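Handout, page 2. Input:
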Amino acid sequence: MNKRTLLNQLSEQTEAHLQKAIEQWQMLPHSSFARMPDAAAWSANQCLQHLNSYGLYYLPKLEKALQQAPSQPADAEFAPGWMGAWFTRMMQIDPATQQPSKKMKAPKPHTPVQILPSHEVIAAFIDQQERLLQLLQKAAHLDLAAVRIPISIASFIRLKAGDVLSFLVAHNERHVQQALRALQAQTTTTLVS
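Output:
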């Protein structure tokens, strides 16, 4: 896979997440953003808390790894590792249904335990997406296979930096879509009432 193409795709998706948060979610009242569609489903607030917990873990690790990565031309090839590609595929959304291809239970350290003020949760998400965009730009001239990062749920498993970037953006997309479904459920409920 061409590294420039990969990073462009990841940047476009991250930019879309950032714009959604800035242009739409910041304007919503806390009561809407924090409302759960049903007792078994997360609110948009909880979805972003979950993403923020991953960002708190992965962004500093990516920053450190990219500081150590050797230079490489921007048009070099990047070969995902089999495990990194598998983790990323598990996170992806089915384009036809806009639903996750595989349902999963969130690891306990990444499960929101309470509803936090939505403006703080959204602000943290915006900050993390901006940091991620900076890392994607920096990664263009670095060897993304040369440095490895331990995953959050099992530190003995280490993935290539390029795989972690792919996973992180796919994971963000999965839960951004979940947040959108939670918000859409409110609109549907309001229309039916």
